[in-house]
Each structure stands twice: as C-alpha cells, then as structure tokens.
Amino acid sequence: MSLLTCLLALPFPLLPAIAQEPQDLHRQDLAAFPQAVIAPDGTPHVRGELLLQFAPAEPATVMRARIEAMGAKVHRELPSLRTLLVRLPEGHSAHVAIDRYRALPGVAHVELNAIGGIGLCATMPTVDTYFADQWQLDNTAANMGTPGADIEARPAWDIEDGDPSVVLAIIDTGIRYANPEFVGRTLQGWDFVNDDNDPFDDHSHGTLVAGLAAASANNAFGVAGVDSQCTILPIKALNAAGSGAVSWLLSSLDFVAQQGADVICMSLINYPASSLIDTALQQCQTAGCIVMACAGNGGIGNADLSYPGASPWSISIGATNSSDVRAWFSGTGSALDFVAPGENTVTISYSGADQMAYFSGCSAATPVAAGIACLLKAQDPTLNHDGAFELLRVGAEDKVGNAQDRVGRDNHYGWGRLNARQSLDPLYERYCKAEPNSTGAGSVITASGSSSLIEGDLRLTASLMPTQVFGYFLVSETKGLIPGAGGSQGNLCLTGTVGRYVQQIKNSGATGSFRIPVNLSAIPIWPNQAILPGETWHFSAWYRDKNPDPTSNFTDAISITFL
N or C: which terminus of the chain has fewer CB atoms within 10 Å of its end residue's CB? Predict the structure, then answer.
C-alpha cells in the first residue's frame, strides 16, 4: 500500500484540498500484484484476462470451445452469472483483444478483469481496550467529539443485540478467525485469491472490519462489535496488498449468495463500473442478502465512481467523524445513501485481542452499517434488502452535520447518519408502538379499486399524515390493539408475522398522503404464500414523523377480504 494511502488514515489535519482531487486517491499500489497492468484509459487490470458473459440460450460448453479455438483458456466458470474468466495466450494484451472476443457468437458482454481494493489503512495499536473508547457506539464526548454523534448502540441493544442465525458475509482480505473475538462464530469461508478454503487475513484490513461489525461483547477484553451475536462468513477477495480482481469479487458474491448470507459487508473501493458486478449484486439481493458497500474515499464525487458502492444494487455508505461532520475523504455524489461513523473509529487490533486500533475510511463506516443491518435482520427475519433500506432511511438522523447536511437527502450525507436504535424502533413490539403525530390527529388508510384477485387494481392511500414523512405499507394476517393513546386512528395495528410491501414511497408533500398500487402477485412478501380468494388480510402504513421529534407512527389498520 502506498505511503499516501496510509497517511490518509492518520488523524492529522491534512490539507482539505486533497479531498477535492479524488483522482489522486484512485491509484492503487500494485507492487504486490505482479500481473497488474494499466489500460490506456487508466483502468488497472489483470494482465491477459477477460471476463466474458454469454447469452442465456448459449451453452457454456459451446462458448468454451469457441474461446479455446482462439488459443485462449477458460480459467474459471461462474454458472449462475453465465460468466467465464478467460486467460489469453501468452503475450496477448487484454485491452487490445477485447473487441475480438465481443464479436464471438453468443457473447453478451466482455470486460477487463479490473482491479479494485480496500479503503484507507489505519492501525494505531494501544493497550487501552475499554468499550468507553468506542465513540461510534456511544459518544459521551469524554471519549471523543460531540455527545450523541453515534449510532445509539446501547439503547439499540435493549431492543435487539443480535442472533447467531444471522449470517454476515465479510468480503475483504479475509479474517484472523483465531482471534478470541471471533472464536466459535465463523463459518467455513473461501479464499478466492489463492483458491482454497482458508480465508486467512494476511493484510489486517478484513480483521479490523470484522471487529467493527461483529466483535464479541461482554467477554472482558477487546472491543464490542455492533452485532456481537451474528455468525461471520469470511471471504477473501483481496490479496496481501489489499488489491483484488473483479473475477475474485464476482466469485465471492456468487459464493455468499449460494451460502445464504443475510448481510454482505464490502469495504472495497475503486472497482470500475461493471454490468457483471451489477448482475452479481442483483443476484445477491434476489437470494435475500442485504448488500452494504463503501461510498469511496476520494472525496467530492467519488461515490458515483467507485464500485461496488456506486452500483444501484448496493447500499452506499460514507463516513462521519466524532463531531457528526462528513469525514473529508468520504465520497459524495448521487449514489451516496447514508453516512456512518468512519473516522478514527475504534476496533480490534490485528496483532492481538487485548489491544485496539483506530480505523478510518468508508472501510470503517461500512461494517458499522452492516452491523446495524444484522440487528434489523435478527429482529425481523423476513427483512429483505429494500425493507432494510427503508428502515435505515427512516431511522437516519438528518441535519446533524455542517451546512452541507441539508434537509432530506443530499449528496454529502445521503439520507443522514445511521442510528441503530431509531431503525430498530419500528420493529419493536411488532409495529405496535406508536406515538401521537405532529398534526394532533390520527392518520387513516383507505382502499379503492377492486379487491378481486382477477382484476388486481386495488389502491391503498394513507392520509391525514404530517407532511414530508417517510413510510411504506405493511401487511399481516392478524391485527391487534395499541394499548392506550397512540398515533393510530382507532388504535389498531398489525400483529403476528408482519411483512412490508416495499416500494420507494416519496415524501408525502403538502397533502400529507401517499398512494401506491398494490401488486397482488407480490403480497405478501413471505416465501411460498399467496393471497387466495376468500382470505382476509390486514394493511397498515408505517411512517416516521420527523417534526418536531422522530417518533414511530401508524395509520389505522384496514381489513380487506379478497374475492
């Protein structure tokens, strides 16, 4: 790793101008990647290798034969992505040959096997191992910064402290899984760099990431992760220098999707935009994964350039400091979704369990966010990627940073700084905890259109809500009472198994209402269950009222018998 990259991790007041020149931070130190070359457009990639995706109707055996007829070899096959890693004949340049392979019959897409890497490196070992140093979890200002500039981990753990059934896949440099913080909590992962089943961390980055997300708590040493109960699936997609080929990332994503991971943490940056990466991330979402990735460390505009965080199929995480201000290196742009503590956060030390390390970069913010996602999944196992995004969005704290942190979403802070407690709150007591909203009246939900399954034109409308709130519709088989006064008209809410009918519901605007068509083929969310004629289902709308204080609110529950 370059000296510049390591210096960026240190808490020294470096010139802010560096953050305005993300191209300087895009350069990889490729000295430990002997097969790396730079294409004319500046893309670092593996010498003599291409990633070739073939059309759905084309057999892999036929494509292999066509490739070998050109003198190349298929080094690896990813069947679920219909993708082949092709090694060209000795001396052939990949960027020169790419057009010839695009012209092969049956080829859908070809790209260079590009190289990405890690976020900022930072290890500053000390002998101080107290939880009180972890400002990202509980900022008292005695440990660093501004009181409350944290994710509210303590009150979040009162609601949910994790579950071993939740699997967190960490795609990184591997993990030092013998560390006492992880003993008994790891699954058999894979090393796609060396192609074996020993994803040992020979760098340190992956271990530091794992410590932030998932270090064990209450074990009398070390630190606490955001989720200290989840099970870790370690994946090595980066080498000892912190660099990795796109083919290693694709293989990793394919593996974790098939292994049934619940949350994916990717503290990876500087991969180029890639339709193959998009396809692999989409496949992970389809398999039920919640996908978290770095927003980049190149400052202004970098969130829109650095994959996999810039992909629309991942949740992009930027970094804040202990004063709730965007870290100067944190990537900005339209692709940025949220920010989380990521500058001088405190995690385990690679060198031993009884030490700690300061860790900076979107590489630090991403595992904090992934840990919150694990808590959400533990509280509600039916949660999918879109549902998790909505819970993170309505729980995020807005307008906590500097003047760049504007009301609603902005390109510097996304939807805001993540708050574990506020994102868990809607799941507490199965969506049956409501507060009066700022209008002084309960909100209502109404239905229009037909409840006939054949016609399928049902519409739901939530109204009499405060303006500018976030929300989505819920569906359940049962409904119940909210004890005492609450924000629900008639004090009705949903109970039992609750699913979310997730669409991107925009701000309610001046009318204080939102409406969506109900796709009956997609309700409910739970697998292998569909609405049948004669059944009665119950719908409600959840929203967070942010004026004047964030509170959980619900509309009245409406019962619909389908014909």
Answer: C
